[in-house]
Design a protein that fits this description.
mainly beta; seven-stranded mixed beta sheet; four-stranded antiparallel beta sheet; 0% helix
């Protein structure tokens, strides 16, 4: 019943990099914008990046701008999040989610229709 499967999380040292993948299940991503959210223990889920269905527009939260890059490969039905210069503040469970065509103007989880279960990212020395 899950629509997305996230992968690529794990333990990484501060300053390191990870690439997360979000693979769609049972549907094509061609007409769907995809966002990455993260949630740390005791904190609200927040959108950190989004890419439109066409890939022509992207957005980033201030906390990750310049360090993270979102991309998509519709032929592989997959969206990626390249994370560089990681710090312990990036430790969280990372989720991908889809909304039709365009990224939400208000970056709220309720705008999204399909979710994965998340992949854990731990940044620690």
């Amino acid at each position: 019943q899950l629509q997305f499967v996230e992968s690529g999380g794990g333990l990484v040292q501060p300053g390191g990099s990870l690439r997360l993948s979000c693979a769609a299940s049972r549907f094509t991503l061609d007409n769907w914008a995809v966002a990455w959210f993260r949630q740390a223990p005791g904190k609200e889920r927040e959108e950190i990046s989004c890419i439109s269905a066409s890939g022509s527009t992207t957005s980033y939260a201030d906390s990750v701008k310049g360090r993270f890059t979102i991309s998509r490969d519709n032929a592989k039905n997959t969206v990626y999040l390249q994370m560089n210069s990681l710090s312990p503040e990036d430790t969280a469970n990372y989720y991908c989610a889809a909304v039709y065509l365009y990224c939400a103007y208000q970056h709220t989880p309720s705008d999204y229709d399909f979710w994965g279960l998340g992949t854990q990212v731990n940044v620690s020395s």
